[in-house]
Amino acid sequence: MTDFPVSNVSPGSGSPELLDAACVQVRDMTQARCAVVIVIDGDSGSGYSIVGPLDAQILLPDILRKVADSLRGQLGVHLQ
Q: Considering only 56-60, 68-72, 73-77, which range has the smallest mean pLDDT?
């Protein structure tokens, strides 16, 4: 059990083409090898897209874990 709200987010959600296009645009604009777009409660629901080679995607679990830990710390201060 967690003290934090949980959102149901799935790959692509209701409009996977839109999320994929946004993710490609972010990757191209930043000239990155890999990009991730996460949408929460958008017009077509919640979802995510990942664009990039597998050798870059393999880094995502650790990066996302660090982001989650950081957010929990920041939100914990503001929600007390």
A: 73-77
5 within a domain of the structure (yes/no): no
Q: How far apart are CA 53 and CA 50, in angstroms?
A: 9
Instruction: Give the residue among 48, 47, 21, 54 at the shortest CA–CA distance from 36.
Output: 48
Is residue 28 in some structural domain? Answer: yes
- Rounded to two decimals, the pTM is 0.75
Nearest to 19 by CA among 53, 55, 44: 44
Establish if 44 belongs to a structural domain. yes
**How many structural domains comprise the chain?**
1
Stated as kind and residue range, the H or E segment containing 41 is strand 35-42
